[in-house]
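Comment thread on ticket #2218

A.B. wrote:
> Attaching the input chain for the structure job we discussed in standup.
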Amino acid sequence: MDVAAMRANFGKAAATGDEAPLYFYSHLFLSHPETRQLFPVSMAHQRDRLFAALGDVVARVDDLDALVPILRQLGRDHRKFGTVAAHYPAVGASLLATLEHFDDAWTPELAKDWTEAYTLVADVMIDAAEQAAEQPAWWDADVVAHERRSVDVAVLLVRPRVRFDHLPGQSVSLETGLRPRLWRYYSPANAPRPDGLLELHVKARDGGPVSSALVRRVGVGDVLRLGPPVGHLALDGDSDRDLLLVAGGMGLAPLKALIDQVARHGPARRVDLFAGFVNEEQIYDRAALEGLGEEHPWLTVTFVVSHDASSSLEHGNVGEVVLRHGPWSSREVFIAGPGAMVEDTVARLLRHGIPQARIRSEVFAPSRPGPSVDGEVTE
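C.D. wrote:
> Ran it. Output below, let me know if you need it in another format.
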């Protein structure tokens, strides 16, 4: 495949903004009306999703070792939408029609390369879905507790009705009947528990229909749907290194789950958590984290505020504060939070001498519907 030509071709479509997604969905729904039921009633929050995902795939189409595991995960995950093997050719045909429509330099060679690339993607995803056929496509889960921690943040406890296996640090897609067919990803803030409960931290976002419903309208007794867990922020089972955890905002949740894993299963190690927020009022889980610090002598929790002159807590950029408390060169590092915070903290710790192989990060951003191939999570 001429990957450079494919990327340039995709870039032409992506540069049109909403026009390419609008053309794609119009073509898909007119040529295959049966696919319309797979998508939300309102496409306002869906229109650019597929092209964003396709862009992630295109960026790695020449790295199959990295791409295939991601595609297999997506194939298993897409069962929750009701996707079946027969839908893939329809999507592929509309994709090629869209890429051709927005490129005056479209050639038979490009058509051949895109057909081969999409066929590979579809085959891997279909195979993964078929292998997962004996597992649920989704899990019903009852909301057993709902606590508003602030105007826009809530902590929910949900209990899946049947066994739901997940790893600390992974993310779980979630749908509420209040927003049918709109799935958004959240990271449970706990390791698997004997009672099966999942602790979810949710912040209502402007223009975020799912997060707003979860914070303001969902209550005890409501039923949510959970998709299969995904993600990569997992502890190395062969390592007993001390841990450095750096959270920004809602990125706290998966790192709290790692703390819970150490508390439940070990091995014994030092853990330092730095939790960064804009101001002291935004520290929505403060009491729980302070309780963990008092309960576990191996855990140190440091709160950091970036814009709160009246606070007695540590001040400044969370990455900067982390380095003030070093050295950390022997640690295994996990970072989760907004993109700019993650990028800055990773860069600082690399300069500090921590090898890239011992730094794992995940971006939590409000503009996307789920984890990208880089692990980005929202809402």
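A.B. wrote:
> Thanks. Noting for the ticket: The longest helix spans residues 108-131.
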